[in-house]
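lol so apparently i was supposed to do this last week
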Amino acid sequence: MRSRLKSASVQQWIFLGVALLVMVQLSWWIRLQVRQSADLLAARIEVLKAGRAEAWQMDSRTVLPYYAAPETVLRRGEIVGQLPKLLPTLPERRKAIETAFPHVAVVESPRALDDPQMVDEAAFLTLRPEPIQELEASRLSTLWKAGLEGAFMAAAVLFGFVLIYRKLAQEMDLKLRQRNFIAAVTHELKTPIASLRVWMETLFQRALSDEQKVKIHTRMDQDLARLAELVSNLLEVARADAGSLEMNAFPLDVAPWLRAVCEGMDQRLGPGSLGMQLNLGQGLWVMADAKQLATVVENLLTNAFKYAHPPRTTTVTLGSSAEEVIIVVQDQGVGIPAKELPRLFQRFYRVGDEMTRQVPGTGIGLFLTREIVERHSGEIRVASRGPGLGSTFTLRLPRIPAPQPGEAPAPSLEGLPR
Ligand code: ADP
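anyway here it is w/ adenosine-5'-diphosphate bound
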């Protein structure tokens, strides 16, 4: 148990470590993206500003020549006059600037600290807000895209890791249950054998009254039945695994068959010890392998016996719906915690841990039970109101019409309890 806890917590630490690593990697990557996109935005704004400076230079080149000496007009070598120089007007200059540099605007007062003033004008060159807004929007969308891609990547990695982690945990759990199972089977085989040996020695070595002999015979019979049940369950599980669980299905009249199985179990477990009440509806038929189905009911009754303290009360009810035959086995025993219910039919699964388990068992009874029920196209469910409040197993099988007279099969001896 301790080693299981240890390996489970090692797994959890590894998982946490990897999750942390992925998160650190992701946040580092996102920070890098944010920084790179901010640098890119700054560089693009610098390019726009360079364009603004170029616009200013172009405008200055247009205007400055007009400040040179006016051009003289000569006729036959004589100066006859001077050509007046006309500066281009501000609207003409604005038009020229805005045509050559669409992202630059001519404004009356500066919008940014570094907006240059136009030569000889109370006007400034500034960057239009739209291209900057566009750049910022494109940066934002790039960041979103990168963030989403990163989140998707991280989610995919974590999801894969969770799958691997769960698979590993399941495998470890199965291994542990397998180990427990082998220990339990060994114990379950040894106990009745040891008990049989003691009874044999008692029979041979002592002079006993007839009454004592009958008592010992009964005990030996119970030990043998316990051995036979275990071996039979083991064989059936092996067959189920190999896919060779044989089905000899015939129409089965459930009520008389179920009564015989229950009464047989009552005898085996000790007459009256189950405190059994039978409520059996009549005339209900299923297509079933009577022997295999008996294994199901026997397992449920054995559990009702094992997991309840005397005086026990066990109710077996046979009912039906239009399409199903329903067998309910209810006990007032130790009950089952809600969180254990979904795993109860798993192979080798036993409630609690080795330290706290009082009742011997192997954890294959309910697994085999479900295998057999599913082979009959039925289903089995368990319910419990919780520890100490008993358990209810409900078995549903497809109902068939009663065979017509003459059609009914000969009663199968195989359905009778072992
Ligand atoms: P086993 O009884 O050999 O351990 P089963 O497969 O029959 O194996 O049952 C699996 C587990 O389900 C048992 O170990 C027990 O903890 C729980 N269980 C089964 N039937 C009952 C019941 N009627 N009441 C309480 N617990 C039960």
